[in-house]
Design a protein that fits this description.
By secondary structure, the chain is an alpha+beta fold. The protein is 21% helix and 37% strand. Strands 2-3-4-1-5-8-7-6 form an eight-stranded mixed beta sheet.
Length: 163
């Protein structure tokens, strides 16, 4: 089963954590000095906020899959629809190691499709995928502040964050 993902940049992390904790009636499952995440079951959503990015507001949307097969299905669907896709492969960002790819809608909204493999202790730990597509796109797809971030080569609103 997939989980909807929303990542929002905020100006004041503490104030936003307080607001969303009250709004969701739930504590975040992870809080760092620059990041917080809620994994809600009703509705089923992975909602993350950070103050690492540029302009405050929605940064990107996405789907988090429960397994590799669901991720492969999303990738196949995008390719079958002839949607430009950036395959980031296995990468680390936002305190998680994930397998992921990106697509962008006609308005420039980035959509991240990912399967989380493990938690990591540090934002910005990164291992670029070994596949040629990711290597070829590496210099054009990922922001230096967040190497596992959204693709720049595919039009997006900002490239300073990832899930």
């Amino acid at each position: 089963m997939k989980r909807f993902h929303v990542h929002v940049h905020v100006d004041d992390l503490a104030k936003s954590i307080d607001f969303y904790t009250k709004l969701f009636a739930a504590e975040p499952v992870r809080v760092e000095s620059d990041y917080a995440k809620w994994m809600l079951d009703d509705p089923r959503i992975n909602f993350a906020i950070s103050n690492r990015g540029g302009v405050a507001g929605v940064d990107h949307l996405g789907f988090q899959t429960d397994d590799a097969e669901e991720l492969a299905e999303l990738k196949a669907r995008a390719r079958a629809a002839d949607i430009a896709l950036l395959d980031a492969g296995e990468t680390t960002c936002c305190y998680a190691r994930s397998e992921k790819h990106w697509v962008t809608d006609p308005q420039g909204v980035a959509w991240e499709h990912f399967h989380t493999l493990a938690s990591v202790p540090t934002f910005g730990e990164y291992k670029q995928a070994e596949n040629t597509a990711a290597q070829a796109a590496a210099s054009a797809c990922c922001a230096s502040a967040s190497p596992g971030g959204k693709p720049i080569g595919i039009a997006v609103k900002s490239a300073s964050s990832c899930c």
